[in-house]
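User: My instructor asked us to take a sequence, write out its structure as tokens, and then describe one feature of it. I'm not sure where to start. Here is the sequence I was given:
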Amino acid sequence: MRRTDWALLLLLSLLWGGSFFFVALALRDLPPLSVVFGRVALAALILGAVLALRGQGLPRRAWGAVLVMGALNSALPFTLFALAQGRIDGALAAIVNATTPLWTVVLAHLFTTDERITPQKALGLVCGLAGVSVMVGGAAGGEALAILACLGAAFSYGLAAIWGRRFKRMGVPPLATAFGQVTAASLLLLPLWLAQDRPWQMEWPGLTPLAAVAAMAALSTALAYLIFFRLLASAGATNLSLVTFLIPVSAAALGGIFLGEALRPRHLAGFLLIALGLMAMQGRIGIWLDKWRGATRGAR
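Assistant: Let's start with the prediction itself. The structure tokens for your sequence are:
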């Protein structure tokens, strides 16, 4: 990758890792559904404005598929993560989020014909699931339920990855899909938000949580999607997948510096196993070993 791509990849990891930081700030004075609805509704307005400036739109025939995408890729996982962060730190939630590619591999094997589980992927799955077991096995009570909620969110992202393949066949531009999914998520969450949080009865939350929601929408959602699709075109999906390893690091750094969050040893051990599993599935370990062998041979 070029230096520009590396810089954008690091920025993307900071934006997506920052979403866990912003959720933690917002939850101090806002209930979870208010945080999630504010995020997707404002992001829909921003992405809608970007599409209007570009003269693009979302085909009517795509709205049915987009509605499902909005549920799987925004409404459900955002809500589960927000509920979980009422009990666990954002860094731990980000680590569990890194299991998304594991679920995607399993679901692709079950529901597609072109991506099967190979021995290499199976090894990665075993390693990654061992990491999950290390984290969940030592948890209890609310922490265990929160980790399970994060796993449910990661599983939903995996479903969305499989469902989202249809948009390329339908000829829907990626940015239009992003706009459609956050708009659909807003419509799905609106009645739940009104019934559950009753915003007309809520006290004014203050500037910090509102600014956190706005930052989540503008930076961690709208801007992040713009960077994501640019990197996908310039660096490719394989290189872009490196962001999976960087998001927990960004989340842990932000949480540790500004919120005093700290990961336990079993959380770090779980992340290491998940990271090794992801690298094994992508074949990166073999590539790095080949490079190391070549370097040692050349040094002789």
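For the description part of your assignment, you could build on this observation: The radius of gyration is 19 Å. Try explaining in your own words what that tells you about the chain.
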